[in-house]
Each structure stands twice: as C-alpha cells, then as structure tokens.
Amino acid sequence: MTADDLATARAEYARLGAEIARHDELYYREDAPVISDAEYDDLRRRYEALEKAHPELVTEKSLSKRIGAAPAEKFAKVRHKVPVLSLGNVFADADVEDFVARVRRFLGLSADAPLAMTAEPKIDGLSCSLRYEHGHLVQAATRGDGYEGEDVTANVKTIGEIPHVLKHAPPAVLEVRGEVYMTLADFAALNERQAKAGKPLFANPRNSAAGSLRQLDPAITASRPLHFFAYAWGEVSHMPAATQMGMLEKFKSYGFPVNKLTTLCHSAEELLRHYHDIENHRATLGYDIDGVVYKVNDLALQERLGFVSRAPRWAVAHKFPAHQATTVLRDIEIQVGRTGALTPVARLEPVTVGGVVVSNATLHNEDEIARKDIRIGDTVRLQRAGDVIPQILGVVLEKRPKNAKPYRFPHVCPVCGSAAIREKSDGGTDVVRRCTGGLICQAQAQERLKHFVSRLAFDIEGLGEKQIEQFYAEGLITKPDDIFTLAARDAHAKTKLVEREGYGETSVRNLFAAIEARREIPLNRFIFALGIRHVGETNARRLARHFVTFEALRKTARAASEGSEARAEIDNIEGLGAVVAEAVADFFAEKHNEDELDALLKYVTVEPMEAVASSSPVAGKTVVFTGSLERMTRDEAKAQAERLGAKVASSVSKNTDLVVAGPGAGSKLDKAKELGVETIDEEAWLKLAAEARG
Ligand code: 9MJ
Fold first, then answer.
1. Percent of the chain having pLDDT more than 90?
2. Is the per-residue pLDDT at 27 higher than 60?
3. 77-309: which CATH topology?
4. Which atom of ligand 1 is nearest to the CA of 125?
5. Is 647 tagged catalytic?
6. What residues form DSSP beta bridges with 648?
7. Of 89, 454, 493, 641, which residue is 20 to 30 A from 285 by alpha carbon distance?
8. What is the pTM of this model?
9. Which atom of ligand 1 has the smallest separation from the CA of 229?
C-alpha cells in the first residue's frame, strides 16, 4: 500500500466518522433523523471495514473507542411500587356539588358534618415520581401507563428546583410526586431558539416540558429550564402528616416547591369560589394550568374512600371550559373500528382552537349528525377540551350554503361492503351502526391487530399502528399469531425485512427482540389484548384477578351459556355484571376466536396473575355483604374488602367464602346457611379488617 492509499483511507475514515457522529446527533438528541436505518447501517459498515483494513487509523477518538458513543437507545422501565393515580374530570359547577355529595354519602356524613377539602391548581405538565431513600434522590420516573414509567433520573437531576438531598428528617423511603413544567416565557424563548436553528417548534409548554425531560442526553434537559411542583406521593415508609395540606407543608420543609394557590375549603360553594378565582387569575400565573384539583384533606378519610379503578373517590379535577372556534366542514368520512363500529369523522378546514391546529373532529354517530342537522359545506362550531378529541357542537345556520346536502349515513361498510346494522336490544336500538363483516372486514382485522400490540396490551416496541398497516397490506401479519412467526418466516423469505424502505439491520433486530420479549405476558394484558367487547383495561384486570390463570378463565367462559352457573360466576365478579359476562361468553363461543387463541398460545406463555401479596385472611376469598351495615356504608364495605384482596359478589353461591350479615338480612343469609357458608356480623368483619391491616 502506498502512502497515498493510506492518506485516502485516512480522509475517508475521518469523513465517515464525522458523518456518523452527525446522524447520531440528529437521531438521539434531536429526534429528527434524516437518513434511513439501512443507510446508517451502511455508513457504520464502511467505517468498520476501513478499521479492519487499516488498524493504524484507529485512535482514542474513533467512534468505536468512545465509551458511551451511542447513547442508550431508550430509557429503562421502572415499575411503580404504588400505581400513579389518574383523576376523574368534571366540567360543570353542578358536578362539583355532586362530587362533594358523593363523598359525604359514601362516608355516611350528614350534610352539616365538617368536611375539609384542598383546592390545588392543576398544573399542565408532565407527572413525575421521585424516590428518596434516607433523604437522597435515588430514582426519578415518568408516569408511563401508571404502573410502569421510564427512568429519567439523570435528567431530573438537572432540574434545579428538585432537591438531590432533602432537609428536615424526611421518612427513610419517600416517593414524592408532582408535575414537571415549563413557564410560558421559557417556552416562548425555546421556540424562538428552535425557529432560529430551523428546528421544529413545540406545540405548547406541556409538550416542550415532556420533550425536554425525555431526552436521552441529560445535557439537553439541563439546557432547558424546567420547574416542579410537588402535590402527591407514592411509597412512604411512615407518613409524616395526617392531611393533604400537612403533606404539602412537609414537602415544602423538605425543600420542594409547592403551589401557593392551594387552599383549604369546607364546602362545594367555597371550592367553586376558589376555582373561579383561580380561573380569573389564570392568565397572570406565567405557567399553564388546565383546572383545579379538589382532594379530601383528611388522609384517614381518603383511605376509607379508596378508588374506582385507578381514580380516587377522594379527588376530582375540575377542568376549565373548553376552547371553541368555528370552521367549515369539508367532508364526512367513515372509520371502521375494531368492533365494527362505523364512526363518522369530520374533515375540517384547519383552524386553531386554544393554540392547537384542528382538522378532524368526531361526529359520534348517525343520530348525532341528524339531530344537529350537520351538512357538508356547513360552518360548524367546534370545541376542544384538554386532550380529548375535538367535538362538533352544532351548525352556524346563517352561513349554510344553498347547495349543502343532508348527510346520508351508509348502510353498508365502506371497507368490506358487508351490511352495517344497528343492533336491537331490550333497551331499544343501538346508536352505533356496525359492520357485520367480522374478521373478513379488513378494517376490523387491522384495528384488532393495532389493539393487540397497543401500549396496555402486548406493547411491542417498533410495532405500532403504522407498521401494522404496512405489514397487513403486504399480508405479512394478518392475525395475532403471525407476529410471533415473523422472524422465522423472514429468515426464509425472498424479500427480507431489512430490504424494505425504512428498515435497517438495527431496527429489524430490535423489532424481533421486542417481539421475543413479549412471548411471556401477564394475564391482564393478554385478556385486554383480545379486544373482547366491554373488556377494557380495568375489566381485564378484574377478570385476571378473579381467574388467576388463562385456562381457568377460558374454561368458565366456554361454559358460560345464558343462565348457567359459569355465566353467573362472571356476572358476579365485582364491577362486571351481565353485559360484560355476555360479551365474554360470546367471544369464547366464536369458533374463529377459539382457533386464534389456540394458534396464539403455541407461541405465547400467559403468566398467571400474581397472587395478592397480602397476609390478609380474606385475600382471594369471595365475600357477600347483606342486610344493613351500621358502622359504614355498603359502598365503603365493598371497597374495604377489595383493598384487602377479597372479591365482592352480589349474590350467594357455592363459590362464596364469607357472608357479612347485618340486621334485616334475608334470603342471602338463608342461602348461606343452606350452603354452609361462614357467616359473620359487621363487628367481626371490622375486627378482621383491622387485623388484616396490621
Ligand atoms: C396537578 N396536575 O397539578 C394532582 N395535580 O393528585 C395536582 N395532580 C393529582 N394533584 C392525585 N395538583 C393524582 C393527581
């Protein structure tokens, strides 16, 4: 080799190195790659080939030598020890009165008994859970799906307002939760910098806070001015206060910012007064809030109130009114969903509503279009509240063009041509028109696959809606089990995945690894993934907790014909009921669903539901309450039993383990005696519950 050859190689090596570094920067730091994975892999290959041919080129500065040259591809997952709560929303003043009345009713408080509640501004940022051990920040995680978030410790440590070490003797273990946010001024300045650098702009302060925190490079987070307000907690080794207000004061003493506008109120009237006060000051705060959160102040009462699904009964978010605008309806398109529902979607002349450009809105169903007499070409009034899909409120009749035609809702599926019908039931005619094509309808099949891989179901990284559409169109994935044979088929395929537009070796490898990782899946996710009607995340969890294994659920569901014991068993699971029981039975009665399950279970292992980790003597038992209770309301008793890991049923059967009978108990008590089921009174129940709590 001549000196010239070596000089050429050296120049090429330097050029490639710089180019790869630039693409790393674009990909990892700016979230804006400009080349495909395949092109990137090719650059890397050429770089490595040069190193092999000319080892003398390699220096300490070479990409292959740089420790941590390629940042971690994604954040590690963090399982929240205590799930992060979500809040129920209300919009109207009357709903706030209902909330307070509901709390009083649940606790059995009279209208004049004192009940203190906090009212806190609802910060529109990104919720975050900070774990401190012996006063030191050891982990920070995003909310994620509430059960599992992302480890953003390094990034959070760059936020000046978040203490690394706490003051004033905090509990040994303390998880502080709150909102990371960006001020309006900093948001405007950041967007100005983005614009100058020719980079994409952030839509609002919340997105920019999220984008800034979820950076793989903490140096970028550090360059973005983020703030924090503490308002809640997760795991705490011993509670330092007995009220919400007391906890906020403690947080402040430990060194956290807490929101000054939080006040203690004693009635719905006072809550509303404070709400309207905050609403009037909203524009002068300097940061975005989207409502006011009300919380029962006494933590012992919060404990008694408990939860419905993941939302506490003791708190509610009172949202500010939605933003409105008017625009022109260009067209109505029909989308066919997973269950065949035909949903009309309004295609609109794009318009800004509360800072967000809207070009689509939901029209709900055909009755809604008829009732509002919405015609194509009409000028319509539009509303957007929080992060819900924009809605069309009605038509501005004065602006109706002469040629506007009433809309005729299709009676056949626009995708597969099958009849689309409105089911009749005891309650009348369903408002939703559904395609009767089932899985022959490509839209339904595709939507079911999208649901199957979605975040709360199989959650396969790299296999989202876009990829499902692509693979479905090519016939590569047309049913769930195809996902798990994709890698094996690809190994023998004529055209391999890597040769496809948008794919490279890295992304294909990652996709196959992500699929592999999901061959084992928790039961609740698996049930949710099946897309059974009326079985969302919460009901999937209820079924999983009740049946523990998939085999047990399947056996009962198969036997759950109308009027059977098996149907009653599902119906009786707390929170389910007849409609869900019927939907579950219907799903397992369909041969194609059973075939699909058999195919899928060849590749997938469903993990049994973890037993309720509790020393509670009633964990896993089925309890029935009957007669009147004197020390607590029926709702509270049920909630308490569930917290102790028991299942609460509404009727007594041979599956019942324990009946709690108060005065006036009638036929249920008789049945319990007849079946020899253990029966106790309210006093004995309360003793049992106290022992269980330790
Ligand atoms: C916000 N976003 O400001 C809660 N929040 O409490 C306040 N969020 C909350 N509280 C329990 N102030 C769950 C969420």
1. 59
2. no
3. D-amino Acid Aminotransferase; Chain A, domain 1 (3.30.470)
4. 2
5. no
6. 623
7. 89
8. 0.63
9. 3
